[in-house]
Design a protein that fits this description.
Layout lengths: L15 H20 L3 E2 L5 E3 H4 L4 H6 L3 E2 L11 H6 L2 H8 L2 E3 L4 H10 L8 E10 L11 E10 L4 H17 L6 E6 H10 L6 H8 L2 H15 L4 H7 L9 H11 L4 H20 L5 E4 L13 E6 L10 E6 L13 E7 H10 L13 E3 L4 H16 L4 E3 L6 H10 L4 E4 L2 H5 L3 E5 L5 E4 L1 H10 L1
Parallel strand pairs: 1-5, 7-8, 12-13, 12-14
Antiparallel strand pairs: 2-4, 3-4, 5-6, 6-11, 7-9, 9-10, 10-11, 14-15, 15-16
Helix pairs in contact: 1-7, 1-14, 7-13, 8-13, 9-10, 12-13
């Protein structure tokens, strides 16, 4: 007996209805990206391992899917290395490529390679799948789409303001009311680490802090201790776990707390600029919240950090995020090119819209007109009419088999096709068509031009 087929954990098949709903999200995001002046690019699904490794921190590197070299990939591996079972060293010998983990690092590589062809500041958007060897769970997949927008070649804080507005515009168009756009700045995190005397452990500090909403205060404190951060430092940072007040009140508290840190003070200044601008300009449906525990745990952020959460009545992880990276392209040899960008998590947004029943207006692509197939001559007659309808952008098709009429009508009903065209000997002799409205049941006889006029007007 043949084994039942399956797909890898963390991946999914999508039905026609699901694809239509996903395309609705894609189209909405794309529309806003282009309204804000972004241009599309695409990059390969896999990159050289050297491009990706070391850009996401230790945890990120572990989640990168490696691709085995072609052919006999063990042939050139030293036997002693195989016996030692050192997986890290062995992997570097047998795998030179990897599936992309996100779209930001490949974009940085793209900018460096194509710097002579790019007009700076360069505003690009990219909507492609990424892969992570993560443990699958609700809203977390091993293969998923990201929809990114980035600007490189400008340090202007107005770009950071625009990204808040862009998030708000997309979610408003999707009728996803009540999202929260969380905002922080890496300079503030660096300032806090400096004030508590743990500047050399900034990465460990931010990775632990970023898990506050998942493992709680005790879990964060325990992880910090395990990373060598002192109890005294943890005691100093604990008030941040329950930082309260309006955005302006939080900024004032931070300004006082970080008064002795140059970098931290600069972070407060940058945040205040964005907060003041948004308060002045307003948002359509989202909330802006300053969150000093927001770290996002990625090594390449140097300034603003964004994270978007779904409305409070939906249990879901972040549905978007991003930040500023002043030195990412420097890793690939292009210095002094600042960038800032955001990403939309399409798959999580889909789940949120589904849970809130916000897909009511999304229709499955289908023909408007179905020509019944009553024989070879009738089908030939219908095909000529099909050509004319399609030239007028009327979605139409011919039932492929000369089956019983009942079966063909059932097909039309199951796909909710609006019109059925019936052509028999009488219609062909008189150069006519019998048009049936499947919703009302009404039938009428018409010529080809009348058929076009009716189906294009209704």
């Amino acid at each position: 007996m043949a084994q039942k087929p399956s797909i890898p954990k963390g991946t999914r098949d999508f039905s026609p209805t699901e694809v239509a709903k996903r395309n609705y999200i894609f189209f909405t995001i794309k529309q806003v990206f282009e309204t804000y002046g972004f241009q599309p690019i695409e990059t390969p699904s896999f990159e050289n391992s050297s491009t990706l490794m070391g850009k996401y921190g230790e945890e990120g590197d572990r989640l990168i899917f490696k691709i085995l070299n072609s052919g006999d990939y063990l042939k050139k591996v030293d036997e002693a290395l195989l016996v030692s079972k050192n997986s890290l060293q062995t992997t570097s010998k047998i795998s030179e490529k990897a599936l992309r983990y996100d779209l930001t690092v490949p974009f940085a590589r793209y900018v460096v390679q194509h710097q002579n062809d790019i007009v700076f500041p360069f505003k690009r958007y990219q909507m492609q799948p990424v892969w992570r060897a993560d443990r699958p769970q609700k809203g977390r997949f091993r293969e998923f789409y990201q929809c990114d927008a980035d600007v490189v070649g400008s340090k202007s804080l107005w770009q950071e303001v625009e990204f808040v507005q862009l998030y708000d515009a997309v979610f408003s168009k999707l009728k996803l009311i009540g999202t929260t756009i969380k905002l922080n700045n890496r300079k503030i995190l660096s300032g806090i680490a400096e004030i508590i005397g743990e500047k050399d452990k900034l990465i460990d500090f931010t990775i632990a802090l970023d898990k506050l909403d998942k493992i709680g205060e005790e879990g964060v404190a325990k992880e910090m201790l395990a990373k060598g951060i002192s109890e005294n430092a943890i005691k100093k940072v604990k008030p941040l776990f329950s930082f309260k007040g309006s955005n302006q009140e939080k900024l004032n508290q931070l300004q006082e707390l970080l008064a002795n840190s140059v970098e931290g003070t600069q972070g407060v200044h940058d945040l205040r600029f964005v907060v003041n601008a948004i308060e002045n300009l307003g948002l359509q449906s989202a909330n802006l919240e300053l969150d000093v525990t927001l770290a996002r745990g990625l090594n390449y952020y140097t300034g603003a950090i964004y994270e978007v959460s779904a409305p409070k009545n939906v249990k879901m992880g972040s549905i978007g995020g991003g930040g500023r990276y002043d030195d990412l392209t420097g890793i690939f040899g292009l210095k002094n090119v600042s960038g800032v960008g955001i990403s939309f998590g399409l798959d999580r947004i889909y789940l949120v819209l589904e849970e809130l029943n916000l897909f009511d207006q999304v229709e499955l692509p289908k023909p408007k007109v179905l020509f019944l197939n009553l024989g070879e001559q009738e089908a030939t007659y219908c095909m000529k009419a099909l050509l004319k309808l399609r030239k007028h952008q009327v979605k139409s098709e011919l039932y492929p088999d000369a089956s019983k009429m009942k079966k063909q009508l059932n097909y039309a009903n199951r796909r909710a096709i609006q019109f059925v065209v019936i052509v028999g000997t009488s219609e062909m002799e008189n150069k006519k068509f019998t048009l049936k409205n499947m919703q009302s049941g009404e039938q009428q006889t018409c010529n080809l031009q009348e058929l076009v006029d009716i189906t294009t007007s209704l």
